[in-house]
Amino acid sequence: MKSILALAAVLSLAISGGAFAQQTGESVREPVVVELFTSQGCSSCPPADALLKQLAQRSDIVALALHVDYWDYIGWKDIFASPAYSNRQKGYAQLGGRKMIYTPQMIVMGRQDISGIDGMGIADAIAGYQGEPRPVALDVRREGRELTLSLAPRVDLPDGPITIQIARYIPLQSVEITRGELAGHRIDYANIVNDLQQVALWDGQDATEITVAFEGAQPAAVLVQQGPFGPVLAAAHVN
Predict the structure, then answer these.
(1) Fewer Cβ atoms within 10 Å of its own Cβ: the N or the C terminal residue of the chain?
(2) pTM reported for the whole predicted model
(3) For residue 61, which of 109, 22, 133 has the smallest C-alpha distance?
């Protein structure tokens, strides 16, 4: 019952957050990045998938679903899974000193590991990062088949490469699962990452402008991250 109530609280937060900004005329906050590591072969993942679907409706959150492939052996091959996303989850675990990976797991701003069904924990993490200024100012402009990314440090950044990544995603797709632990269920999946590419490296020392190719109508998110698996320094939606 406790987990159900916690999840309900976050679903309410997901709806009310955007409405409050509209009613008060408040400017849109710099978005909080929430990555969900999930699988269609994971029986405990549907509540987290439903939560991410709600979070994806908020303009102040970059919600991304990364489907891992290590549950495929159970009897249902996740049609969205990629070993690259399993490796990303392992990278976060290694950097965070964790010996295990699991689903459903949410990583908030590349820094905080939270169970995907810990509704109150996720709500608290999102609220905490909303009030935190980003270390990097990021502006994204789309012109034709190109994106221009303008970056500027707001603080002295740690040494080491800063990766600029673009995650393309499918906004919503319903899947009927016919085998495995979730056989007989039809589940809606939101913001399903189907391409995650590093497009540039930046030293973080001086303001810079980067132009990258960007074709097609599929939406995306830009992630500016310390190393490949470190803290997210800035992010933006691309529609």
Answers:
(1) N
(2) 0.90
(3) 109
Please, what is the Cα angle at 95 between 55 and 135, to 5 degrees?
60
Q: How many CA atoms lie within 13 A of 65 on its CB side?
A: 31
Q: Report d(CA 209, CA 230) in Å as an integer.
A: 22
SS (H, E, C) 34-45: EEEEECCCCCCC
Residues 6+ apart with CB under 8 A from 128: none
Cβ-based neighbour number of residue 92 at 10 Å: 21
Provide the 3-class DSSP secondary structure of residue 99.
coil
Lookup: tokens for 172: 């919503």
Burial code (b: 16+ CB inside 10 Å, e: under 16) for 140-170 equals beeeeeebebebebeeebeeebbbbbbbbbe
Helix axes 2-24, 119-130, angle to 10 degrees: 30
What type of residue is 216?
A: G
Residue positions counted in the chain: 239
Sheet holding 32-38, edge to edge: 112-115, 105-108, 32-38, 61-67, 185-202, 162-177, 220-226, 232-238
Cα–Cα dist 82/158, whole Å = 31
Least Cα distance to 6 among 128, 105, 120, 127 occurs for 120
pLDDT, tens digit, for every residue of 62-109? 999 999 999 999 999 999 999 999 999 999 999 999 999 999 999 999
